[in-house]
Every structure is written in C-alpha cells, then in structure tokens.
C-alpha cells in the first residue's frame, strides 16, 4: 500500500457520489453563515454585545465549510503518502479539530450569557460589557485552538505510521483526545442542556413580573426579545447535541469495533456528515433572530 503514490479508497463512481453528497452541505454551510456574517457587518443595530457570540460561531461554521470539510473529505477519500502517514494526516485534520472544539466552547459561552441575561436582566449590560465579552471570546477561541491541536502532539509515537487501514495511530495524546470525544463531550452537552432547563425555569418564574403592568410594557418587549434569543440558543444547542452524539460512538467504533474498511468508512462518513450538518443548521435556526436581539 505504501508503494502507491495516489489512489482512491472507493471506485471512481463511488468517489463521485461521495463528493456529491458533501457538496450541498458545504454550499449551505458557507452561504448560510456568510449571510449571518454579512448581516452582522452591514447592520449596526445587530452589532450588540450578545450577538458577538453568534458572530463568532458563524465565523467558525463558515470556516468549517470552507476549509475543514474539503480537507476532511480528501483525507477520507485519497490514499497517499501525505494523507496516510500519521504525522501529516493529523495536520490535514487540524482545521476540523480546532473549529469543532471552538464551536463547543462558543456554545458554553452562549449558555453562560443567556443565564446572566435571564437571571440578572437589570444588570446584564453592566456585567456583560463589550470588553468583557471580547475577552471571553478570545479566551474560548484560544482554549478551543489548544484542545483542537492535541492530535498533532505526537510525543512518544511514530510519526511515519501508516494509518489508512484499520490500524490505529498509537499516540497517547490522540487516545486522550478520543476519550474526551467519546465520554466527556456527551456529559458536557448534558450539563449544558440541564443549564438551559434551569434558564427557562427562571424565565417562567419571572415572566409575570414584566407583563402585568402597562407601565412595564417596554420591559415586557425587551423580556420577550431575551426569551426569543434564549430559546433560539437552546435550539442551537439541541441540534448540536443531536448531530454530535453519533460522533462519540464513531471514536469507539474506530478503536474497538471496526472489522473492515467499508464499514469503517460508512460509519465515519455518516457520523462526520451529521457534525458538519450542524454547522449549517445554526444559521437556519437563527434566521431572522439576530436582527431582533435585545
């Protein structure tokens, strides 16, 4: 296998179908998130503090479609010295690792932001200033980058190991990364869902306080906008959870259950396709909401 220069994992017809299935996902991901970014840049009333997280998430998803998906597709489909040696293969998957980790971090930041907005409505704009929000985003982007680069830290492993068959890359850091993906991420998503249940419960308890008085009509309108933002964020998290949970199974399948190359590629493609779909679902869910945020 190593003697071959370049070959395809699938026959020509299968390869064309494989790429064709991904093309609509890439186009929707790039165009949908480009629309969110354009809206944020062109309309001043959208450029508010709480929308910074949505803007950053749209950047991450846009780059996922523009960079991470094409590289991941080529890595799965092409067998070559570059795509099959452990060291270079890890670098080609690096954009996907980094952008996915950053996306998860942004979901955590959005959850905390929504909790403060609902539980401390009168002090929200004091607590979450433009400077603080910018620093939070920078921190989580840096954290996502550091965690996403773990697979390329191949200490104590063979960087020339051939990993395009059923062989697993024997790297301790990569094992830790897969462990986090299989067990820690589902737990983390569950905690975020519980946090949103708590946020919506607080919102339910507070709704009467801002709607019973005519003099508080303006506050009621603002509250409804915050609730709309919170519910939208909860839908984003929900879709992310649904599309990402199979990816946790993929890591276990690759290590313990994969018996042949066809089933391995099928599971990898299905699970990774779902994670990429979540990148273009975000702008669909947020369509029309960003213009009306607080």
Automatic annotation (TrEMBL):
Single GO MF annotation: G protein-coupled receptor activity
InterPro entries in alphabetical order: GPCR_Rhodpsn (IPR000276), GPCR_Rhodpsn_7TM (IPR017452), TAAR (IPR050569)
Keywords associated with the record: Cell membrane, G-protein coupled receptor, Membrane, Receptor, Transducer, Transmembrane, Transmembrane helix
Entry's Gene Ontology cellular component terms: plasma membrane
Residues spanning the membrane: 16-41, 53-73, 93-116, 137-156, 176-204, 225-245, 265-285
Domain called G-protein coupled receptors family 1 profile: residue spans: 32-286
Subcellular location: Cell membrane
Top-level taxon in the UniProt lineage: Eukaryota
Membrane protein topology class: Multi-pass membrane protein
Family the entry assigns: Belongs to the G-protein coupled receptor 1 family.
Protein name per Swiss-Prot or TrEMBL: Putative adenosine receptor A3-like
